[in-house]
Amino acid sequence: MSKITTHVLDTSAGRPAAAVSILLEQQTPGGWREAGQGATNDDGRCLDLLAEAETLEKGAYRLTFGSGPYFAARGVTTFFPEVSIVFEVTHPEEHHHVPLLLSPFGYSTYRGS
Prior knowledge:
- The protein is mainly beta.
- The chain has one domain (4-101): Immunoglobulin-like (Sandwich), CATH 2.60.40.180.
- The protein contains one helix and ten strands; from the N terminus they run E-E-E-E-E-E-H-E-E-E-E.
- It has one helix at residues 67-72; strands spanning 4-10, 15-16, 21-28, 31-39, 45-46, 59-65, 83-89, 96-97, 100-103, 106-109.
- Strands 1, 2, 5, 8, 9 and 10 form a six-stranded mixed sheet that branches. The protein has a four-stranded antiparallel sheet with strand order 4-3-6-7.
- Strand 9 and strand 10 (106-109) form a beta hairpin.
- It starts with a strand and ends with a strand.
């Protein structure tokens, strides 16, 4: 399993959000560089953003979720065409789980386990 994982729950529908695109980036002195990408499965989880053998480095990472296309595919208007979450990795040996609770007009996140 990737050292960085996520899952997305559609709180407006009360179910996991499947097929949400996700981009993982790492901040570098020159800007953001892509570190991985994927999409949520039927359970709303994305467990393979990074290769299992890939090691994390300390620093800032950004997850960007394609919330606009997700809601558009369901015929739902959303205020947020994408959601970006920036977080800091201070202990790269640990697993980092960053869930997203999503609705058309709001979202929240936290450090999961």
